[in-house]
Amino acid sequence: MELLSGADMIARFLQDEGVEYIYGYPGGAALHIYDALFRQDKVKHILVRHEQAATHAADGFARASGKPGCVLVTSGPGATNAVTGIATAYMDSIPLVVLCGQVMSHLIGDDAFQETDIVGVTRPIVKHSFSIRHPSEIPEVLKKAFYLAATGRPGPVVVDIPKDMTAPTERYEYVYPKKVKMRSYNPVTRGHTGQIKKAVELMLKAKRPVFYTGGGVVTGKASEGLTDLVKQLGFPITTTLMGIGAYPQSDQQCLGWLGMHGSYESNMAMHHADLIIAIGARFDDRVTNNTSKFCPTAKIIHVDVDPSSISKTVRADVPIVGPSSSVINEMISLVQGKSITSPEALTDWWQQIDTWRADREGKLYEPSKPGEVLKPQEVVEALCRVTRGEAYVTTDVGQHQMFAAQYYKFDKPNRLITSGGLGTMGFGFPAAMGIKQNYPDDDVVCVTGEGSFQMMMQELSTCKQYGVGVKIVNLNNASLGMVRQWQDLNYKSRHAHSYMESLPDFHMLIEAYGFTAITVNTIDELEPALERAFADKHELVFLDVKVDPFEHVYPMQVPLGSMRDMLLSKTERT
Amino acid sequence: MRHIISILMENEPGALSRVVGLFSQRNFNIETLNVAPTEDPSLSRLTVTTVGDDRVIEQITKHLNKLIDVVKLVDLTEGNHIERELMLVKVKALGAARDEVKRTADIFRAQVVDVTPSLYTVQITGDATKLDAFLNAMAPLGILEVARTGVSGIARGDKVLSL
Ligand SMILES: Cc1ncc(C[n+]2csc(CCOP(=O)(O)OP(=O)(O)O)c2C)c(N)n1
Ligand SMILES: [Mg+2]
Asked: Which of B14, B62, B71 sits opposite A183 (nearest CB)?
């Protein structure tokens, strides 16, 4: 039997759980825990420069690896600084365990120094939270936290730890709990066979089917199965922003992604489909546009591990509650050996889709001419070429995010790392940092904008401390481009606070941290700069790419319209 | 339509705030709320009445079930059930009104449980419509204070809500 203090139990538990990196920032209420981490060397603590960055870094790691990320912050301001990151993870169903120091238990409720009710503050943005009430509970509560974060529909879990729970003087028995059971939590392990059969019958009979798959296929590690199923059936597939890469985008059957800035052919195919096979997607308003005009002729099969996602915004005809992987596997075995009822109809459907595709080919944007200011789209296309489409690409939020998602082609899941649900500016750089530390031999690039980057740029200091060689591509349009786009479209180009006056000299800023910066102005400078940036995997390089501030993201769905109502450029609409 | 949802949940600090928070967070409505421990000290029973169409009620039960602290729940209005609420009312009882209060209480099978020279405190149980009717009857006499427990309910027959 081993006797450990609460703080040592935490350090020990993290080792036993296999946590390699924990991202955090110290402060009074967390100091016993920091001391315990200091006295061991298996779990590596990464000192960020702002707690929000700790949550995004852990979140980035979780998105890339499929394993829970782990964060440690102190009470009060430490914990409240983490809130945006917790909400970001919650909206995208990312497994995260956030350990928060808290004031001593006898002070709780007294407005003690650095006290906030963080369990209360985060209640609507966590999957669950715990408060430690006795040090002996620590191993079991932490096990539950990791279990809850990673299973079922994943999400963030907060553990509130009053300082006296980690006091070095009190020791209790420590045993690593290999398993936990919770009577009130039993995530489904498979879908209803009858419903799956019904779904497959509809699929085989469909004339204009389309797969619409989301982040649930990525977090559910079902992308191989999905690829098999879609290939066997020969149906078109479109994914959500969160589902990008779960099916290889370079494959003919992939129509790209759908929704507000999704591809023309995806949105057209959805609108005209007679069957939508939704897997691990939640019919979010950025996808459906106006739900009352959504896909008027389609029957809907909806597979989701979370029953509350089904029929939340759009009624499902065949609801299936279950994890994407097992449901997909069952579908595959039911489809095997069978053929679709009407191959001619599917051929016609493909002809229609190919016409839509051809309609927009070469018209998506106009590349810059030599000497002219660069188009953001061509920068992303060049980035994709130089990294052979294999990099981990994180983004911030804005036009650059949409361009990154549109013009980088992803053939693997977990490669586009973006804040889809919350749309958190500041996410991209710390997320890239978290990924690079865990995958030092891969290319990790943050595609950002000068607005977003300035929200978390203090992390340059963290990258310096730990030698994190991420690449940063700053699509610098000297404005809050996405806001400006909306103002162009909806406010007669009244640019209220959407431009950035007094931008720093990014070149000097980056050099102040001891890193390399390259400023790119024209097309002939672009590829050499990218090649230079990616030459050394372990060097942080910042590309300040000056791009056209007047560019808009298209297609763009028309507000309150159907899926097919889109602006296609500044002058064309469907 | 009005629904009565009864929930067995972990008797843990924070559990109640998660349930209540869910309703405000997702814009669901709460008409009444009643919560107390059960015969099993590790479980509380919470009963909530809410109004919504089928789609909303489906979302409410799904989201409640998703809360980690919620062990089991039932929508009592889906089957035959017994619904009760307890109410204490202080009513002015002076002069002729004193008899009138007593008579009305008798008609409703309510009991006078406390008296002063100027008022009666009346206790009444029943479903919400009966309690509303009683309040209507008492209103002209001068209601001074009302305390209602909110609805509690249980299914009729062999059906049992337990682990
Ligand atoms: C934290 C946060 N604040 C505000 C917004 C609203 N917002 C969305 S996009 C955007 C502009 C982003 O500008 P920039 O990072 O330069 O990207 P660009 O659109 O110019 O590519 C803003 C302000 C947001 N998404 N997140
Ligand atoms: Mg910008």
From this structure: B71
Domain endpoint, select from B27, B48, B79: B79
List the CATH number of the domain containing B43.
3.30.70.260
- From CA B109, how far away is CA B57, in angstroms rounded? 34
Ligand 1 atom closest to A397 (CA): 9
| Most B-contacting residue of A308, A310, A315 (CB-CB within 10 A), to test interface | A308
Beta strands in A87-127 (DSSP E): 96-102
Distance CA B61, CA B75 (A): 8
pTM: 0.96
Give the distance from residue B18's alpha carbon to the nearest chain A alpha carbon, in angstroms. 7
- Ligand 1, atom 4: closest residue by C-alpha: A425
Q: Does B23 touch chain A (CB under 8 A)?
A: no
Contacts of B63 in chain A (CB under 8 A): 308
3-state SS assignment for residue A72: strand
Q: Which amino acid does the sequence have at B92?
A: K
- With CB atoms and an 8 Å threshold, state whether B21 touches A123: yes
Give residues whose Cβ lies within 5 Å of ion ligand 2: A 449, 451, 477, 481
Strands A541-546 and A471-476: parallel
Which residues of A269-313 form beta strands (DSSP E)? 275-279, 299-304
Predicted confidence (pLDDT) per residue in A280-314, tens digit: 999 999 999 999 999 999 999 999 999 999 999 99
Q: Which of A163, A375, A471, A546 is catalytic?
A: A163
- Residues A17, A15: Cα–Cα separation, whole Å: 5
The CATH code of the domain that includes B128 is 3.30.70.1150
Whole-number Å distance, alpha carbon A548 to ligand 2 midpoint, is 10
Residue A138: per-residue pLDDT:
98
What would you measure as the largest C-alpha separation in chain B, in angstroms?
56
**Is the domain of B131 the same as that of B99?**
yes
Q: Is the pLDDT of residue A84 over 90?
A: yes
Residues B58 and B108 in one domain: no
Q: Do A99 and A43 meet the contact criterion of CB atoms below 8 Å apart?
A: no
**pLDDT digit string, tens, across residues A314-365:** 999 999 999 999 999 999 999 999 999 999 999 999 999 999 999 998 889 9
- The domains located in chain A, with CATH, are 3-173 (3.40.50.970), 193-360 (3.40.50.1220), 376-553 (3.40.50.970)
Unique residue bearing structure tokens 């978290």: A434
**A482 annotated active-site:** yes
Inter-chain contact A311–B17, Cβ cutoff 8 Å? no
Nearest-angstrom CA–CA distance, A542 and A529: 10
Closest by Cβ to A312, choosing from B59, B68, B70: B59
User: Taking CB atoms and a 6 Å cutoff, what residues make up the pocket around ligand 1?
Assistant: A 396-400, 423-426, 449-452, 475, 477, 479-483
